[in-house]
Structures are given as C-alpha cells and as structure tokens.
Amino acid sequence: MKAVILISGNGSNLQSIIDNADRIDLQISCVISNNKNAFGLKRAESSKIQTYIIEPELFNSKEAFDRELISIINQDGAELIVLAGYMRVLTPVFISNYFGKILNIHPSLLPKFPGLNTHQKAIDASEKIHGASVHFVTDKLDDGPIICQESVTIEAIDTAKTLSDKVLKKEHIIFPKVIHWYTQRRLKLINNITATLDGKIL
User: Which is catalytic among the residues 106, 119, 130, 172?
Assistant: First the structure.
C-alpha cells in the first residue's frame, strides 16, 4: 500500500517505518516536511525516497498550506497518510480529504497530555506510568480514536530526556505494527468515531 509520511524533525519514527516497510507491506511514495532542516529528510534521501519541503511562510493561511499538501499527496496516489513527528495542526480542509486514512503517533497515554512537552508534563504530574499512543486523526488535536498504546514506568531518576528515550523505543515498535494492520486492511475507522481491528472495536 502506498503511503505519504509527514515529518517535522529528527525522523526516528520515519526510520523505523523505512526499516520495516517491506515487512509491513508499505510503499513510501514520498516524505513531506514543513521544516527544510528536518533531519528526517536526510533519512528519506538516504533510502532513495522522494522528498518535498513545503515552507509555511510562503502561504497566507493554514488552509492554503494544506491545499498544497493535498495536491502533492494526490499526485502520488497514496492510500494512507502517516504523521511521524509532524508538528503542524492539520486543518479541517486536509482532514476531511483523508478522513479515516490518517494515522498519528503521540508521546503520551492519551487522553492524558495532548499537545507538546508530554514527558515533562507526566513527570510534573507525578505519574507512575507514561507511554505512547497511535490513533486516527480527527479535527480535534490528539483526540481521535485510539488504536494502540504501550506504556513505560516512570522512575524517580527519569528526566524528560530519559523518559523520551524510553517512550521512543515503544513508538518504534507499535507504529509499524499499527501501519501493518492498516495495510492488511484489518484496521478501519467505523462511523467516523470507532477504531476496529478485524471487525472488533478497539
């Protein structure tokens, strides 16, 4: 199955997807970034994957930016959009075009700690457990139906950095797994609100 991957930064989740692409029946048609300095672009180029940079400052609105994004994705004929550390909030224009076809990974056990700085927030809240979530994307930030979660224990010595490292290891496992469910057409979004795997509600 063809997928477009959107990134903004280092691209470690992108790398785990690239490394597992054959196993999970995924053809990465291109990688698109809103940040020209994203290291993930180099990862894609090293694997001979087409890359595009869309610079936000060249557009007069978020909708105009997303329309350009849509035009690139549509010319590639992708069936799946994967957000792998993509730091822009998608507009309703974009989401309505690909509803049920957008997967995101978020570094917290949603619904806890949507948004940024999740690891520090978990430490500050004296949480004992933290983790990562893969979910379908909807109009509300980090609020789509949850597909899969993995947890880690927060130790007294953990910092935001050490916690991030632990969570990333889990992300690199669960994201390719969920993508594979989708490419096998086992994973679906039903009635716009419910994630199902093999017809069973997750």
Answer: 106
